[in-house]
DNA sequence: ACTGGACGACTGGTATACCAGTTACAAGCA
DNA sequence: TGCTTGTAACTGGTATACCAGTCGTCCAGT
Protein backbone atom coordinates (compact mmCIF):
# COMPACT_ATOMS: atom_id res chain seq x y z
CA UNK A 1 0.00 0.00 0.00
CA UNK A 2 2.97 2.21 0.52
CA UNK A 3 3.63 1.89 -3.19
CA UNK A 4 0.68 4.02 -4.09
CA UNK A 5 1.62 6.71 -1.63
CA UNK A 6 2.31 9.98 -3.28
CA UNK A 7 4.29 12.84 -1.92
CA UNK A 8 3.62 16.48 -2.37
CA UNK A 9 6.92 16.80 -4.22
CA UNK A 10 5.76 14.26 -6.79
CA UNK A 11 2.58 16.17 -7.39
CA UNK A 12 4.56 19.39 -7.64
CA UNK A 13 6.89 17.78 -10.15
CA UNK A 14 4.04 16.68 -12.38
CA UNK A 15 2.37 20.04 -12.24
CA UNK A 16 5.54 21.95 -13.01
CA UNK A 17 6.30 19.68 -15.95
CA UNK A 18 2.83 20.43 -17.27
CA UNK A 19 3.48 24.13 -16.88
CA UNK A 20 6.81 24.04 -18.69
CA UNK A 21 6.04 21.65 -21.51
CA UNK A 22 2.45 22.77 -21.74
CA UNK A 23 3.56 26.27 -22.55
CA UNK A 24 1.73 27.87 -19.67
CA UNK A 25 4.81 29.76 -18.58
CA UNK A 26 7.12 32.12 -20.41
CA UNK A 27 10.45 30.28 -20.87
CA UNK A 28 12.29 33.59 -20.87
CA UNK A 29 11.28 34.53 -17.38
CA UNK A 30 12.68 32.78 -14.34
CA UNK A 31 10.49 30.61 -12.21
CA UNK A 32 10.31 31.36 -8.54
CA UNK A 33 9.97 28.74 -5.84
CA UNK A 34 7.64 30.96 -3.87
CA UNK A 35 5.43 31.98 -6.76
CA UNK A 36 5.13 28.40 -7.98
CA UNK A 37 4.31 27.35 -4.47
CA UNK A 38 1.51 29.87 -4.26
CA UNK A 39 0.25 29.17 -7.75
CA UNK A 40 0.13 25.42 -7.27
CA UNK A 41 -1.13 25.52 -3.72
CA UNK A 42 1.80 23.34 -2.65
CA UNK A 43 4.36 24.19 0.01
CA UNK A 44 7.68 25.68 -0.98
CA UNK A 45 9.79 22.69 0.06
CA UNK A 46 8.05 20.17 -2.21
CA UNK A 47 8.23 22.68 -5.05
CA UNK A 48 11.91 23.09 -4.33
CA UNK A 49 12.46 19.32 -4.41
CA UNK A 50 10.66 19.14 -7.73
CA UNK A 51 12.78 21.92 -9.18
CA UNK A 52 15.97 20.20 -8.06
CA UNK A 53 14.82 17.07 -9.81
CA UNK A 54 14.15 19.07 -12.96
CA UNK A 55 17.56 20.65 -12.61
CA UNK A 56 19.22 17.23 -12.59
CA UNK A 57 17.16 16.38 -15.65
CA UNK A 58 18.57 19.39 -17.42
CA UNK A 59 15.19 21.00 -17.86
CA UNK A 60 15.92 23.87 -15.58
CA UNK A 61 18.92 25.75 -14.25
CA UNK A 62 19.03 27.13 -10.73
CA UNK A 63 20.96 30.31 -10.14
CA UNK A 64 21.21 31.13 -6.46
CA UNK A 65 19.73 34.47 -5.50
CA UNK A 66 18.71 35.03 -9.12
CA UNK A 67 16.06 32.55 -10.03
CA UNK A 68 15.33 29.22 -11.68
CA UNK A 69 15.57 29.38 -15.45
CA UNK A 70 14.13 27.11 -18.09
CA UNK A 71 16.95 25.77 -20.22
CA UNK A 72 16.88 25.56 -23.95
CA UNK A 73 18.85 23.26 -26.21
CA UNK A 74 21.00 24.29 -29.14
CA UNK A 75 21.19 22.42 -32.42
CA UNK A 76 24.72 21.34 -31.49
CA UNK A 77 23.47 19.88 -28.26
CA UNK A 78 20.76 18.05 -30.14
CA UNK A 79 23.28 16.39 -32.42
CA UNK A 80 25.53 15.39 -29.56
CA UNK A 81 22.66 13.98 -27.56
CA UNK A 82 21.48 11.93 -30.48
CA UNK A 83 25.01 10.64 -30.98
CA UNK A 84 24.90 9.51 -27.38
CA UNK A 85 21.54 7.94 -27.90
CA UNK A 86 22.82 6.14 -30.96
CA UNK A 87 25.74 4.75 -29.03
CA UNK A 88 23.61 3.34 -26.23
CA UNK A 89 20.54 2.23 -28.11
CA UNK A 90 22.53 0.53 -30.83
CA UNK A 91 24.30 -1.44 -28.16
CA UNK A 92 20.93 -2.38 -26.72
CA UNK A 93 19.66 -3.36 -30.16
CA UNK A 94 22.65 -5.57 -30.78
CA UNK A 95 22.23 -7.28 -27.44
CA UNK A 96 18.51 -7.75 -28.01
CA UNK A 97 19.14 -9.28 -31.41
CA UNK A 98 21.62 -11.72 -29.92
CA UNK A 99 19.25 -12.78 -27.17
CA UNK A 100 16.01 -12.60 -29.11
CA UNK A 101 12.96 -10.54 -28.16
CA UNK A 102 11.62 -10.64 -24.63
CA UNK A 103 7.93 -11.50 -24.15
CA UNK A 104 7.05 -7.83 -23.92
CA UNK A 105 8.95 -7.04 -27.10
CA UNK A 106 7.37 -9.98 -28.92
CA UNK A 107 3.95 -8.79 -27.87
CA UNK A 108 4.77 -5.31 -29.04
CA UNK A 109 6.14 -6.62 -32.32
CA UNK A 110 2.95 -8.54 -33.00
CA UNK A 111 0.91 -5.41 -32.58
CA UNK A 112 3.25 -3.47 -34.83
CA UNK A 113 2.78 -6.07 -37.55
CA UNK A 114 -0.97 -5.79 -37.33
CA UNK A 115 -0.79 -2.03 -37.60
CA UNK A 116 1.67 -2.28 -40.47
CA UNK A 117 -0.82 -4.16 -42.60
CA UNK A 118 -3.09 -1.15 -42.71
CA UNK A 119 -1.72 1.92 -40.95
CA UNK A 120 -4.63 4.05 -42.07
CA UNK A 121 -6.90 2.06 -39.80
CA UNK A 122 -5.18 3.48 -36.73
CA UNK A 123 -4.76 6.96 -35.38
CA UNK A 124 -1.38 8.61 -35.14
CA UNK A 125 -1.66 8.46 -31.43
CA UNK A 126 -2.25 4.73 -31.32
CA UNK A 127 0.71 4.06 -33.60
CA UNK A 128 2.93 6.45 -31.73
CA UNK A 129 2.08 4.88 -28.39
CA UNK A 130 3.08 1.43 -29.56
CA UNK A 131 6.26 2.91 -31.01
CA UNK A 132 7.21 4.33 -27.64
CA UNK A 133 6.42 1.04 -26.02
CA UNK A 134 8.55 -0.69 -28.63
CA UNK A 135 11.60 1.36 -27.77
CA UNK A 136 11.13 0.66 -24.08
CA UNK A 137 10.65 -3.06 -24.62
CA UNK A 138 13.74 -3.15 -26.80
CA UNK A 139 15.90 -1.69 -24.05
CA UNK A 140 14.51 -4.21 -21.64
CA UNK A 141 15.18 -6.99 -24.15
CA UNK A 142 18.86 -6.16 -24.05
CA UNK A 143 18.96 -7.84 -20.66
CA UNK A 144 21.50 -5.52 -19.09
CA UNK A 145 20.49 -3.73 -15.93
CA UNK A 146 23.31 -1.20 -16.13
CA UNK A 147 22.49 -0.38 -19.73
CA UNK A 148 18.83 -0.03 -18.96
CA UNK A 149 19.56 2.31 -16.10
CA UNK A 150 21.89 4.34 -18.24
CA UNK A 151 19.33 4.77 -21.00
CA UNK A 152 16.70 5.76 -18.49
CA UNK A 153 19.02 8.37 -17.07
CA UNK A 154 19.90 9.69 -20.49
CA UNK A 155 16.28 10.10 -21.44
CA UNK A 156 15.55 11.94 -18.25
CA UNK A 157 18.66 14.06 -18.28
CA UNK A 158 18.23 15.22 -21.84
CA UNK A 159 14.51 15.25 -21.75
CA UNK A 160 14.39 18.60 -23.46
CA UNK A 161 16.32 17.27 -26.44
CA UNK A 162 14.06 14.27 -26.82
CA UNK A 163 10.91 16.25 -26.37
CA UNK A 164 8.64 16.07 -29.39
CA UNK A 165 5.10 17.14 -30.03
CA UNK A 166 3.07 13.98 -29.66
CA UNK A 167 1.47 13.76 -33.05
CA UNK A 168 2.92 14.26 -36.47
CA UNK A 169 1.35 13.88 -39.84
CA UNK A 170 -0.10 10.41 -40.14
CA UNK A 171 2.07 9.77 -43.16
CA UNK A 172 5.27 10.29 -41.21
CA UNK A 173 4.03 8.20 -38.32
CA UNK A 174 3.30 5.37 -40.74
CA UNK A 175 6.84 5.51 -42.11
CA UNK A 176 8.26 5.31 -38.64
CA UNK A 177 5.99 2.37 -37.97
CA UNK A 178 7.54 0.51 -40.90
CA UNK A 179 11.00 1.20 -39.55
CA UNK A 180 9.98 -0.27 -36.22
CA UNK A 181 8.63 -3.37 -37.87
CA UNK A 182 11.83 -3.88 -39.84
CA UNK A 183 13.78 -3.49 -36.63
CA UNK A 184 11.64 -6.02 -34.87
CA UNK A 185 12.03 -8.55 -37.65
CA UNK A 186 15.80 -8.20 -37.52
CA UNK A 187 15.76 -8.81 -33.80
CA UNK A 188 13.39 -11.76 -34.08
CA UNK A 189 15.67 -13.22 -36.76
CA UNK A 190 18.66 -12.83 -34.48
CA UNK A 191 20.53 -10.61 -36.90
CA UNK A 192 22.58 -8.26 -34.71
CA UNK A 193 24.36 -6.49 -37.55
CA UNK A 194 21.20 -5.80 -39.52
CA UNK A 195 19.33 -4.71 -36.43
CA UNK A 196 22.08 -2.36 -35.38
CA UNK A 197 22.27 -0.78 -38.83
CA UNK A 198 18.53 -0.31 -38.91
CA UNK A 199 18.52 1.29 -35.51
CA UNK A 200 21.30 3.63 -36.46
CA UNK A 201 19.42 4.77 -39.55
CA UNK A 202 16.21 5.04 -37.54
CA UNK A 203 17.79 7.28 -34.95
CA UNK A 204 19.58 9.47 -37.47
CA UNK A 205 16.31 9.99 -39.20
CA UNK A 206 14.81 10.88 -35.85
CA UNK A 207 17.50 13.51 -35.36
CA UNK A 208 16.71 15.03 -38.74
CA UNK A 209 13.04 15.23 -37.85
CA UNK A 210 13.88 16.82 -34.57
CA UNK A 211 16.26 19.31 -36.18
CA UNK A 212 13.71 20.32 -38.81
CA UNK A 213 11.19 20.80 -36.09
CA UNK A 214 13.59 22.93 -34.13
CA UNK A 215 14.26 25.07 -37.16
CA UNK A 216 10.62 25.67 -37.87
CA UNK A 217 9.67 26.52 -34.30
CA UNK A 218 12.54 27.52 -32.05
CA UNK A 219 10.45 27.63 -28.96
CA UNK A 220 9.54 24.02 -28.83
CA UNK A 221 7.62 24.41 -25.66
CA UNK A 222 4.66 25.89 -27.46
CA UNK A 223 4.14 22.85 -29.64
CA UNK A 224 2.23 20.73 -27.25
CA UNK A 225 0.58 23.53 -25.45
CA UNK A 226 -2.59 22.65 -23.71
CA UNK A 227 -2.66 25.42 -21.14
CA UNK A 228 -5.50 23.84 -19.28
CA UNK A 229 -4.39 25.44 -16.06
CA UNK A 230 -3.21 28.94 -15.63
CA UNK A 231 -3.99 30.08 -12.18
CA UNK A 232 -5.19 28.16 -9.25
CA UNK B 1 33.76 36.63 -6.88
CA UNK B 2 30.45 34.88 -6.80
CA UNK B 3 32.04 32.11 -8.80
CA UNK B 4 34.16 30.96 -5.95
CA UNK B 5 31.28 30.94 -3.53
CA UNK B 6 30.59 27.58 -2.08
CA UNK B 7 27.45 26.38 -0.45
CA UNK B 8 27.14 24.16 2.54
CA UNK B 9 25.44 21.57 0.38
CA UNK B 10 28.51 21.38 -1.85
CA UNK B 11 30.74 20.78 1.12
CA UNK B 12 28.33 18.18 2.42
CA UNK B 13 28.36 16.46 -0.96
CA UNK B 14 32.12 16.21 -1.03
CA UNK B 15 32.33 14.92 2.48
CA UNK B 16 29.65 12.31 1.97
CA UNK B 17 31.33 11.07 -1.20
CA UNK B 18 34.52 10.70 0.82
CA UNK B 19 32.65 8.74 3.46
CA UNK B 20 31.03 6.38 1.00
CA UNK B 21 33.92 5.69 -1.32
CA UNK B 22 36.57 6.03 1.33
CA UNK B 23 35.10 3.06 3.10
CA UNK B 24 34.39 4.97 6.30
CA UNK B 25 30.79 3.82 6.37
CA UNK B 26 29.24 0.39 6.22
CA UNK B 27 27.49 0.09 2.83
CA UNK B 28 25.00 -2.34 4.32
CA UNK B 29 23.62 0.10 6.83
CA UNK B 30 21.43 3.02 5.83
CA UNK B 31 22.69 6.55 6.13
CA UNK B 32 20.63 8.98 8.13
CA UNK B 33 20.25 12.65 7.28
CA UNK B 34 20.34 13.59 10.93
CA UNK B 35 23.32 11.46 11.86
CA UNK B 36 25.30 12.65 8.86
CA UNK B 37 24.39 16.20 9.75
CA UNK B 38 25.70 15.77 13.26
CA UNK B 39 28.77 13.85 12.16
CA UNK B 40 29.77 16.39 9.53
CA UNK B 41 28.83 19.44 11.54
CA UNK B 42 26.62 20.62 8.69
CA UNK B 43 22.92 21.39 8.88
CA UNK B 44 20.39 18.79 7.91
CA UNK B 45 19.07 20.65 4.85
CA UNK B 46 22.42 20.87 3.03
CA UNK B 47 23.04 17.21 3.86
CA UNK B 48 19.65 16.42 2.46
CA UNK B 49 20.39 18.34 -0.73
CA UNK B 50 23.66 16.45 -1.10
CA UNK B 51 21.91 13.11 -0.64
CA UNK B 52 19.32 14.00 -3.27
CA UNK B 53 22.12 14.79 -5.65
CA UNK B 54 23.73 11.45 -4.90
CA UNK B 55 20.39 9.79 -5.41
CA UNK B 56 20.07 11.30 -8.87
CA UNK B 57 23.60 10.12 -9.55
CA UNK B 58 22.54 6.62 -8.71
CA UNK B 59 24.94 6.29 -5.81
CA UNK B 60 22.29 6.13 -3.16
CA UNK B 61 18.64 5.16 -2.85
CA UNK B 62 16.25 7.04 -0.61
CA UNK B 63 13.45 5.09 1.01
CA UNK B 64 11.03 7.38 2.83
CA UNK B 65 10.68 6.69 6.52
CA UNK B 66 13.24 3.90 6.22
CA UNK B 67 16.57 5.40 5.37
CA UNK B 68 19.03 6.24 2.63
CA UNK B 69 20.83 3.20 1.29
CA UNK B 70 24.10 2.91 -0.57
CA UNK B 71 23.61 1.11 -3.85
CA UNK B 72 26.04 -1.58 -4.89
CA UNK B 73 26.81 -3.32 -8.15
CA UNK B 74 26.95 -7.08 -8.42
CA UNK B 75 29.89 -8.96 -9.90
CA UNK B 76 27.56 -10.21 -12.62
CA UNK B 77 27.08 -6.66 -13.76
CA UNK B 78 30.77 -6.14 -14.33
CA UNK B 79 30.80 -7.31 -17.92
CA UNK B 80 27.74 -5.29 -18.78
CA UNK B 81 29.17 -2.19 -17.19
CA UNK B 82 32.33 -2.53 -19.20
CA UNK B 83 30.27 -2.97 -22.35
CA UNK B 84 28.61 0.31 -21.50
CA UNK B 85 31.93 1.94 -20.87
CA UNK B 86 33.21 0.67 -24.18
CA UNK B 87 30.24 2.12 -25.98
CA UNK B 88 30.65 5.58 -24.49
CA UNK B 89 34.41 5.89 -24.30
CA UNK B 90 34.91 4.60 -27.82
CA UNK B 91 32.53 7.27 -29.01
CA UNK B 92 34.54 9.83 -27.08
CA UNK B 93 37.77 8.48 -28.55
CA UNK B 94 36.42 8.69 -32.07
CA UNK B 95 35.28 12.26 -31.53
CA UNK B 96 38.60 13.23 -29.96
CA UNK B 97 40.49 11.73 -32.89
CA UNK B 98 38.39 13.72 -35.31
CA UNK B 99 38.90 16.97 -33.46
CA UNK B 100 42.46 16.43 -32.36
CA UNK B 101 43.73 16.56 -28.78
CA UNK B 102 42.73 19.42 -26.51
CA UNK B 103 45.53 21.35 -24.79
CA UNK B 104 45.08 19.28 -21.64
CA UNK B 105 45.26 16.05 -23.60
CA UNK B 106 48.30 17.21 -25.54
CA UNK B 107 50.03 18.08 -22.30
CA UNK B 108 49.13 14.72 -20.90
CA UNK B 109 50.31 12.96 -24.03
CA UNK B 110 53.68 14.68 -23.84
CA UNK B 111 54.19 13.43 -20.32
CA UNK B 112 53.15 9.93 -21.34
CA UNK B 113 55.78 9.94 -24.07
CA UNK B 114 58.48 10.94 -21.65
CA UNK B 115 57.49 8.17 -19.29
CA UNK B 116 57.30 5.69 -22.13
CA UNK B 117 60.95 6.16 -22.98
CA UNK B 118 61.98 4.68 -19.65
CA UNK B 119 59.08 3.45 -17.51
CA UNK B 120 61.42 2.05 -14.90
CA UNK B 121 62.41 5.58 -13.97
CA UNK B 122 58.93 6.25 -12.62
CA UNK B 123 56.89 4.73 -9.85
CA UNK B 124 53.68 2.84 -10.52
CA UNK B 125 51.81 5.59 -8.83
CA UNK B 126 53.21 8.33 -11.03
CA UNK B 127 52.42 6.40 -14.18
CA UNK B 128 48.97 5.46 -12.97
CA UNK B 129 48.13 9.06 -12.08
CA UNK B 130 48.95 10.30 -15.55
CA UNK B 131 46.92 7.42 -16.97
CA UNK B 132 43.87 8.50 -15.03
CA UNK B 133 44.42 12.06 -16.13
CA UNK B 134 44.74 10.83 -19.70
CA UNK B 135 41.34 9.19 -19.63
CA UNK B 136 39.76 12.33 -18.22
CA UNK B 137 41.43 14.59 -20.74
CA UNK B 138 40.34 12.30 -23.53
CA UNK B 139 36.70 12.60 -22.55
CA UNK B 140 37.07 16.34 -22.40
CA UNK B 141 38.73 16.31 -25.82
CA UNK B 142 35.62 14.79 -27.32
CA UNK B 143 34.04 18.21 -27.04
CA UNK B 144 30.54 17.01 -26.24
CA UNK B 145 29.02 18.24 -23.03
CA UNK B 146 26.25 15.62 -23.02
CA UNK B 147 28.75 12.83 -23.56
CA UNK B 148 31.03 14.14 -20.85
CA UNK B 149 28.16 14.32 -18.41
CA UNK B 150 27.03 10.84 -19.28
CA UNK B 151 30.49 9.39 -18.72
CA UNK B 152 30.71 11.18 -15.40
CA UNK B 153 27.39 9.69 -14.38
CA UNK B 154 28.45 6.23 -15.45
CA UNK B 155 31.70 6.39 -13.51
CA UNK B 156 29.91 7.60 -10.44
CA UNK B 157 27.03 5.17 -10.56
CA UNK B 158 29.17 2.14 -11.28
CA UNK B 159 32.16 3.36 -9.42
CA UNK B 160 32.39 0.11 -7.53
CA UNK B 161 32.65 -1.77 -10.82
CA UNK B 162 35.49 0.41 -12.02
CA UNK B 163 37.19 0.40 -8.71
CA UNK B 164 40.69 -0.99 -8.81
CA UNK B 165 43.44 -1.13 -6.25
CA UNK B 166 45.70 1.79 -7.07
CA UNK B 167 48.95 0.06 -7.75
CA UNK B 168 49.63 -3.06 -9.70
CA UNK B 169 52.88 -4.69 -10.54
CA UNK B 170 55.09 -2.17 -12.25
CA UNK B 171 55.34 -4.43 -15.25
CA UNK B 172 51.59 -4.30 -15.84
CA UNK B 173 51.44 -0.56 -15.31
CA UNK B 174 54.16 -0.11 -17.92
CA UNK B 175 52.17 -2.14 -20.43
CA UNK B 176 49.13 0.01 -19.84
CA UNK B 177 51.29 3.06 -20.28
CA UNK B 178 52.27 1.87 -23.74
CA UNK B 179 48.63 1.38 -24.63
CA UNK B 180 47.89 4.93 -23.57
CA UNK B 181 50.73 6.26 -25.69
CA UNK B 182 49.53 4.36 -28.75
CA UNK B 183 46.05 5.77 -28.14
CA UNK B 184 47.39 9.26 -27.89
CA UNK B 185 49.37 8.95 -31.09
CA UNK B 186 46.28 7.76 -32.96
CA UNK B 187 44.33 10.74 -31.69
CA UNK B 188 47.12 13.18 -32.47
CA UNK B 189 47.31 11.67 -35.98
CA UNK B 190 43.57 12.15 -36.42
CA UNK B 191 42.94 8.47 -37.04
CA UNK B 192 39.45 7.83 -35.62
CA UNK B 193 39.26 4.19 -36.67
CA UNK B 194 42.64 3.26 -35.27
CA UNK B 195 42.00 5.17 -32.07
CA UNK B 196 38.63 3.54 -31.56
CA UNK B 197 40.05 0.06 -32.10
CA UNK B 198 42.87 0.72 -29.68
CA UNK B 199 40.48 2.00 -27.05
CA UNK B 200 38.25 -1.03 -27.47
CA UNK B 201 41.16 -3.37 -26.94
CA UNK B 202 42.40 -1.28 -24.05
CA UNK B 203 39.07 -1.44 -22.25
CA UNK B 204 38.54 -5.13 -22.88
CA UNK B 205 41.91 -5.78 -21.40
CA UNK B 206 40.87 -3.65 -18.44
CA UNK B 207 37.80 -5.80 -17.95
CA UNK B 208 39.92 -8.94 -17.89
CA UNK B 209 42.16 -7.44 -15.26
CA UNK B 210 39.17 -6.42 -13.24
CA UNK B 211 37.55 -9.86 -13.52
CA UNK B 212 40.70 -11.63 -12.41
CA UNK B 213 40.93 -9.29 -9.51
CA UNK B 214 37.34 -9.86 -8.51
CA UNK B 215 37.94 -13.57 -8.53
CA UNK B 216 40.86 -13.28 -6.20
CA UNK B 217 39.28 -10.82 -3.76
CA UNK B 218 35.48 -10.63 -3.73
CA UNK B 219 35.14 -7.80 -1.26
CA UNK B 220 36.66 -5.11 -3.34
CA UNK B 221 35.35 -2.23 -1.28
CA UNK B 222 37.94 -2.75 1.37
CA UNK B 223 40.84 -2.24 -0.96
CA UNK B 224 41.22 1.48 -0.72
CA UNK B 225 39.68 2.00 2.63
CA UNK B 226 41.31 4.76 4.49
CA UNK B 227 38.86 5.42 7.32
CA UNK B 228 40.64 8.63 8.17
CA UNK B 229 37.55 10.16 9.65
CA UNK B 230 35.05 8.34 11.74
CA UNK B 231 33.53 10.74 14.18
CA UNK B 232 33.69 14.42 14.19
C1' DA C 1 8.12 -20.97 25.34
C1' DC C 2 5.45 -18.56 22.14
C1' DT C 3 2.61 -15.13 19.94
C1' DG C 4 0.39 -10.59 19.31
C1' DG C 5 0.09 -5.95 19.88
C1' DA C 6 1.32 -1.50 21.60
C1' DC C 7 4.78 1.69 22.38
C1' DG C 8 8.83 4.38 21.38
C1' DA C 9 12.76 5.54 18.79
C1' DC C 10 13.96 5.95 14.62
C1' DT C 11 13.27 7.37 9.29
C1' DG C 12 12.44 10.88 5.48
C1' DG C 13 8.76 14.71 4.20
C1' DT C 14 7.07 19.30 4.89
C1' DA C 15 6.12 24.06 6.89
C1' DT C 16 7.81 28.32 8.46
C1' DA C 17 11.08 31.73 9.38
C1' DC C 18 15.10 33.89 8.58
C1' DC C 19 19.66 34.73 6.07
C1' DA C 20 22.58 36.51 2.47
C1' DG C 21 23.15 37.51 -2.15
C1' DT C 22 21.12 39.95 -6.48
C1' DT C 23 18.58 43.20 -9.07
C1' DA C 24 15.58 46.88 -10.34
C1' DC C 25 14.48 51.39 -9.64
C1' DA C 26 14.12 55.80 -8.06
C1' DA C 27 16.15 59.76 -5.75
C1' DG C 28 20.03 62.79 -5.61
C1' DC C 29 24.17 64.65 -7.45
C1' DA C 30 27.36 66.30 -11.31
C1' DT D 1 20.54 64.86 -19.20
C1' DG D 2 23.24 61.24 -17.41
C1' DC D 3 25.56 58.84 -13.85
C1' DT D 4 25.93 57.25 -9.09
C1' DT D 5 24.06 55.29 -5.16
C1' DG D 6 21.20 53.45 -1.73
C1' DT D 7 17.16 51.12 -0.71
C1' DA D 8 13.52 47.81 -1.12
C1' DA D 9 11.76 43.84 -3.15
C1' DC D 10 12.94 40.05 -4.90
C1' DT D 11 15.91 35.40 -5.41
C1' DG D 12 17.58 30.71 -3.64
C1' DG D 13 20.06 28.69 0.78
C1' DT D 14 19.63 27.14 5.43
C1' DA D 15 17.89 26.23 10.31
C1' DT D 16 14.42 24.49 13.21
C1' DA D 17 10.33 22.24 14.41
C1' DC D 18 6.92 19.18 13.61
C1' DC D 19 4.43 15.47 10.82
C1' DA D 20 3.50 10.78 9.42
C1' DG D 21 5.18 6.54 8.24
C1' DT D 22 8.34 2.26 9.70
C1' DC D 23 10.30 -1.10 12.58
C1' DG D 24 12.47 -3.09 16.58
C1' DT D 25 11.49 -4.26 21.20
C1' DC D 26 9.34 -5.57 25.11
C1' DC D 27 5.60 -6.98 27.77
C1' DA D 28 0.92 -9.22 28.32
C1' DG D 29 -1.79 -13.01 27.48
C1' DT D 30 -1.92 -17.65 25.95
From TrEMBL, chains A, B:
Xref: Pfam families: FCD (PF07729), GntR (PF00392)
PROSITE patterns xrefs: HTH_GNTR (PS50949)
Residue span(s) of domain HTH gntR-type: 6-73
Domain of life: Bacteria
Entry's Gene Ontology molecular function annotations: DNA binding; DNA-binding transcription factor activity
Keywords of the record: DNA-binding, Transcription, Transcription regulation
Protein name per the record: GntR family transcriptional regulator
Species of the source: Breoghania corrubedonensis
